[in-house]
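Practice problem 4.
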């Protein structure tokens, strides 16, 4: 399981910088300026902004846009070391002089949910929800944390699949990522190749993927099972509400996957029977 909090401020810093300037970046800059101007006594962090605007822009576009505004002096920043490891970069309006109290509150919240043990529990929760969802739709679990199936083994890398499921003669390699950030693109590509080597269809059960990656997945015969929300354990429902309310992040603590989520996959599965 990837610990997304160890690189909480890094999304877009590599992949985004290698990309040519995108017209969407200018639009992202305008949206960010409107947001920051509307509440000049608000502190934000980069992951928060990336997720809030992901319906309109890739994470790396928003990240580049806010850093451009910082370089131009429109916003100021404060980079903090977190107790749980890694850095978090905070942004605030250039005229907000007494930002530190708000900044401290945000850092405290992020440090709480980026605690290693809590992060592991979130990863496990995502896997449990997927197991329950597939079992409820009568899929048979054929393997866990494996790179071997039906006499074939993936040996190109050390990667494996979280689960392999089968129903109606069709097999699926399922990778679960219950994180706010996008999963690593290199890992994404490898998991697709792994599934193709094993002769099974790739399925990514994730909070969110970029549209371009989803297109690549569809071209590979796979399916993106999008949660939209990061799934917390039920015992942390109150904390999930706090994060959702105060940080405007898409987190929830349901007892089970929304029925429409698995129904989307089941509908797609049934369509494959006629292909």
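Answer key:
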């Amino acid at each position: 399981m990837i610990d997304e909090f160890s690189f909480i401020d890094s999304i877009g810093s590599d992949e985004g910088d290698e990309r040519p300037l995108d017209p969407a970046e200018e639009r992202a800059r305008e949206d960010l300026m409107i947001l920051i101007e509307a509440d000049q006594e608000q502190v934000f962090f980069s992951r928060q902004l990336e997720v809030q605007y992901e319906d309109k822009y890739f994470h790396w576009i928003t990240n580049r846009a806010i850093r451009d505004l910082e370089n131009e002096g429109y916003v100021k920043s404060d980079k903090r070391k977190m107790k749980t490891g890694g850095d978090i970069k905070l942004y605030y309006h250039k005229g907000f002089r007494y930002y530190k109290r708000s900044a401290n509150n945000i850092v405290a919240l992020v440090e709480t949910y980026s605690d290693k043990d809590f992060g592991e529990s979130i990863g496990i929760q995502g896997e449990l929800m997927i197991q329950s969802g597939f079992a409820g739709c009568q899929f048979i679990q054929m393997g866990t944390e494996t790179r071997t199936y039906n006499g074939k083994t993936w040996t190109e890398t050390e990667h494996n699949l979280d689960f392999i499921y089968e129903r109606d003669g069709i097999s699926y390699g399922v990778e679960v990522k219950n994180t706010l950030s996008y999963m690593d693109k290199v890992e994404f590509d490898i998991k697709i190749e792994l599934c193709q080597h094993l002769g099974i269809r790739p399925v990514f059960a994730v909070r969110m993927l970029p549209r371009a990656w989803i297109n690549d997945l569809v071209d590979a015969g796979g399916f993106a099972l999008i949660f939209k929300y990061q799934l917390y354990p039920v015992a942390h429902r109150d904390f999930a509400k706090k994060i959702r309310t105060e940080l405007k992040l898409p987190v929830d603590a349901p007892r089970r996957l929304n029925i429409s989520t698995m129904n989307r996959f089941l509908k797609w599965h049934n369509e494959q029977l006629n292909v």
